[in-house]
Amino acid sequence: MTEAESVMWECLRGNQLGFQFRRQHPIYGYIPDFVCLKKRLVVEIDGGYHYIGNQPISDEERTKYLNQYGFEVIRFTNEEVLSNIDNVLTEIKRVMNNKDTIGSNHAPASSPLRGDRGGVIIFSAPSGSGKSTIVNWLMQEHPELKLYFSISCTSRAPRGTEQNGVEYFFLTPDEFRAKIENDEFLEYEEVYEGRFYGTLKAQVERQLEAGQNVVFDVDVKGGINIKKFYGERAMSLFIMPPSVEELRRRLEGRGTDTPEAIENRLAKAEYEMTFAQQFDHIVVNDDLTVAEAETLQLVSDFLNQ
């Protein structure tokens, strides 16, 4: 470390500002001087060039890239740190106080730096099959798999504390339509007039280049289309309920749907199940523990190829 970095680290280490800072902790393809993951804050001392692989990029480009993932970057010169560290710490505290704390379930920032490209894993299933339960279990209990959802785009306005580039990329309907015209989406849907959701090809590519294994939790047709786009670079899994009768029991057990809605869901499920053979693997979720173990093995084998 430089003298200024040493002085800064003595002030940041050990939760002295109320949150843990890490020194040279990788974030995607970057290794910043200091980072607070909970506050999505990067602190850099002096400028210069930084690298992804062998590609040099400027501080301005690096900041723009990190901003789209919800990170704020603040920089200080060596002279600022060494001449008045109190002013520097006051500025860091001010920025931290104005930023929401991010829970661990948002944590693509904590992924270790990888030199290789990530893979694509696609999950599809009828409603009530337990797909989301299995996907969430994998992501929470097996961080070593480095699984991350792709950040989608939407034409709706942010809600609550949602941030651009964290929960979604927020576009206007016209911006969304322009990207459709330019064939920039891997998949998209117009839920109703003017309300779009979709996944940008470029966003997935950025995450793959950063070594993330990108997870898609999508409907059956979306899953088939994404698999066609990525070919052998992707693995598609269909989570199958043991039977339509068991699916009915699960849907009725939820207590959230009317009898008519349940019948509609069952009819849709029977239709979706006819596409199961178009997926690389079918996992029958009869026993959740067994289905989780089978899915873990399939994902691990694919990523270790």
According to DSSP, the number of beta strands is 15
Quote the distance from N terminus to C terminus: 38 Å
Assembly form of the protein? single chain
**Averaged pLDDT, please?**
84
Strand order of the largest sheet: 8-13-7-14-15
Q: Determine the strand fraction and express it as a percent band.
A: 15-25%
Structural class: alpha/beta
Name the shape in a single word.
elongated
User: Major sheet: size, sense and barrel closure?
Assistant: 5 strands, parallel
Secondary-structure element pattern, one letter each: HEEEEEHEHHEHEEEHEEHEHEHHEH
Count of alpha/pi helices? 11
**Computed CA radius of gyration, to the nearest angstrom:** 22 Å
Instruction: Outline the low-pLDDT stretches.
Output: 49-55, 102-115
Q: Portion of residues in helices?
A: 25-40%
